[in-house]
Amino acid sequence: MSPSTRSGTQAASSGAVPVSIRPARRTASELKALAERGNAELRSRRPDEASPAEVVAWVAENFAVAQAAVACSMADAALPHLVAQSLPGVDVLFLDTGYHFAETTFTRNEVAESLDVNIVDVKPEQTVREQDAEYGKNLFERDPGLCCQRRKVEPLQRALGEYEVWFTGVRREEAPTRAETELIVWDERNGLVKVNPVAAWTFDDLIDYATVHEVPVNPLVANGYPSIGCAPCTKQVAPGEDPRSGRWAGLSKTECGLHL
């Protein structure tokens, strides 16, 4: 098994990366009730939907930083930056699939160096070479669902077992499958609270936030890649097209399985 690896923005004098001690994990029933209470509290505080900052602040009131994780594809660092304002030093999970664009790896390194977060490289159990040996070369061409399952979904599920809450950058405008995304939900499959603070944002909102706060943005975004996944399965998107139409182009597949 390839373990997740961590790289923080600061290190102790010995060179070791400080690791926060996690409090005892609450039960599933306690966390589920907390998620339900969170939505009720946020709705009671204002007549319209809570802002992303308010959602993150609620999480910071109810969870220790060591209990929280941010999932980030490294298309941009808006979400890690937003979360770090209330939870400095938060773990940012990067799914190191072995198929990333060089620009994505560059952005991952930029985020590690410039933000007050701790990058956790989440790796599959098999390298690309080992997977090719077992399943044949380029599994993503023949069975993209299985490839995503082995290189994204399963590694993330293992990593999330350490936390009580995870943040995602899912936005309602991205796809019909995401149109009803709530701000705080109980994630039954992974057994923890799932928070989608930027659900109401548009792509322009995301870029505006990144510009104002001068956070890293993957260079591919400016070159026609508004949604970025693994290099073999991500294509450029023409102006006016669905932002996610470049993901698994030509296939019926629209999601990798992380947010089903």
TrEMBL record:
Cofactor note: Binds 1 [4Fe-4S] cluster per subunit.
Active-site residue list: 256
Name of the protein this chain belongs to: Adenosine 5'-phosphosulfate reductase
Biased segments, Polar residues type: 1-13
Cofactor(s) required for function per UniProt: [4Fe-4S] cluster
Main location, first listed in the record: cytoplasm
Keywords for this protein: Cytoplasm, Iron, Iron-sulfur, Metal-binding, Oxidoreductase
Pathway: Sulfur metabolism; hydrogen sulfide biosynthesis; sulfite from sulfate
Annotated HAMAP family: CysH
Residue stretches making up the Phosphoadenosine phosphosulphate reductase domain: 70-235
Function: Catalyzes the formation of sulfite from adenosine 5'-phosphosulfate (APS) using thioredoxin as an electron donor.
One Gene Ontology molecular-function label: metal ion binding
Enzyme type, top EC level: oxidoreductase
GO term, biological process aspect, one: sulfate assimilation, phosphoadenylyl sulfate reduction by phosphoadenylyl-sulfate reductase (thioredoxin)
Upper taxonomic lineage: Bacteria, Bacillati, Actinomycetota, Actinomycetes, Micrococcales
Region of interest called Disordered, as start-end residue ranges on this chain: 1-24
Compartments reported by the entry: Cytoplasm
Entry GO CC: cytoplasm
Residues annotated to bind [4Fe-4S] cluster: 147-148, 230, 233
Annotated organism of origin: Microbacterium hydrocarbonoxydans
Annotated EC: 1.8.4.10
Family recorded in the similarity comment: Belongs to the PAPS reductase family. CysH subfamily.
Signal peptide: none
Reaction catalyzed: [thioredoxin]-disulfide + sulfite + AMP + 2 H(+) = adenosine 5'-phosphosulfate + [thioredoxin]-dithiol
